[in-house]
TrEMBL record:
EC number(s) recorded for this UniProt protein: 2.8.2.-
Keywords: Transferase
Family annotation (SUPFAM superfamilies): P-loop containing nucleoside triphosphate hydrolases
One Pfam family from the record: Sulfotransfer_1
InterPro entries, A to Z: P-loop_NTPase, Sulfotransferase_dom
Sample GO molecular function, one term: sulfotransferase activity
Residue ranges occupied by any Sulfotransferase domain in the UniProt entry: 53-321
Domain of life: Eukaryota
PANTHER family, A to Z: SULFOTRANSFERASE SULT
Name assigned to this protein: Sulfotransferase
Claim: Transferase is one of the keywords in the record: yes
Keyword Transferase: yes
Length: 326
């Protein structure tokens, strides 16, 4: 039996869940839900990837500020090569999803002979590979998590109510959901039962939260809302953690402000490539940009929904020290 046959057999045996209206089912693998199209990339990443000391992994749940984190990290790590104020900066013409690719989509971007080819591109920093994923912490390759490896992991999470609303709206802008939107009531029930992309959400968040407490030099845990409230101090913190701290001259100048502007939701959404272009997966860039607001859940969740999700996350996060504002 070939490895492909084994993979197909394994996939067929996994528990299946509702794919939130899309054609692909969610599959339960290592206690988390993935679309079947992602699983081959996930398993090969786990099996074949060998981390370098200089590797940087950016991890998020879908619709938790992924593009924002990728943009900031790319600008920070590559600012010696690409001046942030340059009119030819890659972030002006290329989607952050193409500049910093998610590992689980290894087989969806086209023909690559190896994982190392996939994570490398003409924009790669020769001294530091930027990688991205939505995978839970416990499913990451051991070489990335090892204390003997100096690679770093940044995790950005979002208030679960806004995360749910953003994910539901995003998936309703794809595939069959465009003409027949997936009902919010069904999506909410699935979400609260843990059946969501790379969920259960609380388990995904807790995995990185606990890792950041155990090894803060290895894992940096950030909240979307904190970034919104104090962007400059968090960009400085991010640069320091990544090993690319700002010099005194840069701090006196406009570098930090330029990075914040270049990576801001409003600016990114205004770019022509994010209005008309598409990423390597064939998905239109514009569907990644909706509001980017904190608290938009107030406009779309009922009182009973709010009470249920607040109660659920209070229960699931109890004793962890992690709190989301209600």
């Amino acid at each position: 039996m070939t490895s492909n046959d084994e993979s197909e057999k394994q996939l067929a045996s996994l528990p299946k869940g509702d794919g939130w209206g899309l054609d692909d089912n969610l599959c339960l693998y290592q206690d988390f839900w993935f679309y079947s199209a992602q699983l081959k990339g996930v398993t090969e990443f786990q099996r074949d990837f060998k981390a370098f000391d200089s590797d940087i992994l950016l991890s998020t749940l879908p619709k938790s500020g992924t593009i924002w984190l990728k943009s900031m990290a790319f600008a920070i790590v590559n600012r010696a090569r690409y001046l942030v104020s340059s009119e030819k900066h890659p972030l002006l013409t290329t989607s952050p999803h193409d500049l910093v690719r998610n590992i689980e989509y290894f087989h969806s971007f086209g023909a690559y002979s190896s994982l190392s080819d996939f994570v490398s591109s003409e924009y790669s920093n020769e001294n530091s590979r930027l990688l991205a994923t939505h995978m839970p912490y416990h499913s990451l390759p051991e070489s990335l998590k090892s204390d003997t490896n100096n690679s770093r992991i940044v995790y950005l999470c979002r208030n679960p109510k806004d995360n749910f609303i953003s994910l539901w709206n995003y998936l309703n802008r794809r595939g069959a959901n465009i003409k027949n939107p997936f009902p919010i009531e069904i999506a909410f029930e699935l979400f609260c039962n843990g059946v969501s992309l790379f969920g259960p959400v609380w388990e995904n968040v807790l995995g990185y939260w606990k890792a950041s407490l155990e090894n803060p030099k290895k894992v940096l845990f950030l909240k979307y809302e904190d970034l919104k409230q104090e962007p400059k101090s968090h960009v400085k913190m991010l640069a320091e953690f990544l090993g690319f701290p700002f010099s005194e001259e840069e701090e006196r100048g406009q570098v930090i402000e330029d990075i914040l502007k270049l990576s801001s939701f409003e600016f990114m959404k205004s770019l022509s490539m994010n209005k008309d272009g598409s990423i390597g997966l064939g998905i239109e860039n514009k569907i990644f940009f909706r509001k980017g607001e904190v608290g938009d859940w107030k406009n779309q969740l009922t009182t009973s929904m709010v009470e249920r999700i607040d109660s659920l996350f209070e229960e699931k996060l109890q004793g962890s020290g992690l709190v989301f504002e209600s």
